[in-house]
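Structure ticket #2291
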Amino acid sequence: MNGFPGTVEAEPKPEFWYGLPYGYLQLDLQPSPEGIQEVARQINAFPDDLRDRADQVFRLYAGVLTMLRSQEVMGCALGMHPDEHGGANLSVLTVSTVRTSGAHPEAVLLQMLGDGTGPADGIVPVELPVGTGYVLETERTTPAPTAPPEGQDEPAQGTVWQGTVAIPVLRTSSIITVQLVTPAVALADDYRGVLLGVARTVTFDDPAAPDPAEVPFSDSGSGADERSPFG
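Resolution: structure written out below.
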């Protein structure tokens, strides 16, 4: 759960990049009807013991897609990791941007968070390669991404752990938020590590860009010594 094999470009306009951990599948936020049908076909091909859980993930994906489109969500990934009972632990990773309309993003963020920024307030500053981020954690009750129990109209309720790292970015007058949600509340410590791991990979340097040292006539003062965490 702590490896980062790939690099994800934030869409639609890449202003930053971040690492995607092992066990997470990047979702298409603008899927075509054919793409949705293909996902459904793949789920139907899963073994019986995984099909129900995968179907829950698919329902969750369909349920939140409209909400994600209405917000500045740059990327969304679903995580599925084996548990000790032969099942799977599910989680949802989202990366989004909040614009501050030219205002100082850290001032806006601190105003949104309130006066306290310490463990007692549930808000902990953390130093990241791109600057200071602020970690928030909470447990909340939310509808389960499954069909309602037999004889009921409303879906069942469940508790989820939600962790967020908010990163104020002065250069773009915005706040990058990295959020991880999982119903595996007992594994909050593990998922907190995943969340912080993703936050530490956030970079403004395009990992696909050529090394300035290999570009003819490159300007030695253009930040050639700055290294991307992706190598």
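Closing remark: The first helix runs from residue 33 to 44.
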